[in-house]
Amino acid sequence: MESQASEKVLKFVFIGSSKTGKTTLIQNSAEKPSFFGFIASVTSSFKTKNIHLGNTNYKLQLWNSSGKENAMPSLNLYLKGADCVFILYNPSDRASFERLSDWVNVVRSESNGNTKVVIVENEFTGIDRHVSKREAHDNASALGLPLINVNAATGTNVEILYTNSIKYIEGNAVEWEYIWKNAYSIRAIIIGNPNAGKTTLLSKYANFNNPPVGLDFHKTTIEAEDSKIVMITWDTAGQEKFGGLSPSFYRGTHCIMILYDSSNRETFLNLEHWITEAENRVSDCLKCLVEYVKSDLPREVESFEGEDLANRHNFPFFKVNPNANEGMTELFETSAIKTVEKMFSGKKQ
């Protein structure tokens, strides 16, 4: 015999600057005509939306504060008893974005400590953005709040907004994935002589406590403007003893980092071998030349030698010092961005 589903009422309040789409978002997601209730001396309206999750039927009350943006006493009554507050802004209206911290302060001062808060970026179709995706993400992180991108007019991500918020209220783990216009997944490998420092480079960047043994990888996520790039970088240590890498290691690769050790000239002299192999295996991917600087050891290769070699092959050149954490972020983030640019440029290096 199936157990009967329980029911729960949740109060969701929509606030934010005027013309951020609060009314449109509610009207396009609600299922019933407006209900009117009286709170103190203020007439407040809400619409309802029903969502079934797990073994519970949730009846959402969607409270619209539109028209009350400058009436703080009225807004305080809206916030009373709220389970979740959505603070909306319009990315084409920078002023609405810059007021987010003010709205957050209002909610935190007037609501109870159990009220959840979500920043909602309501994107307007066909209107230029004046707030970059990266800036929006960083601002939400600074405020310590989840952020989601929706389009109230088209319904994009609106259902995700509600279901994620219910899970958030119930204390369940929620992946608040910020939705990017462009998302890329790319594969990178690090090649070079044995003892060139491939494993140490990757493990230092990944902040591993113990360096990986043999083949391993690290995921780098880069958020740049309207794009999100996920780059999986593979360490090929232990495979070079065969004089080269199996073609399978190159298959599906978008970026090849060719590494040498500035304190070991042999690793530099053998670069032409690795460059030739990389060109033969994957001719159209991005290749980068990377100098591993060991500041505690005397140089056997000067940086200008590496730069000259990179210029001859038209490769980007990076200099890193993993022990001092220098140049690491630039290597992984810049190479990922350059890889995506190359993938869609249709041009040879």
TrEMBL record:
The keyword Cytoplasm does not apply. It holds the Pfam family Ras. It comes from the Eukaryota. Coiled coil: none annotated. The keyword Membrane does not apply. Keywords: GTP-binding, Nucleotide-binding. CDD domains: Rab (cd00154). GO terms for molecular function: GTP binding; GTPase activity. NCBIfam families: small_GTP (TIGR00231). This is Uncharacterized protein. It comes from Stentor coeruleus. The lineage of its organism: Eukaryota, Sar, Alveolata, Ciliophora, Postciliodesmatophora.
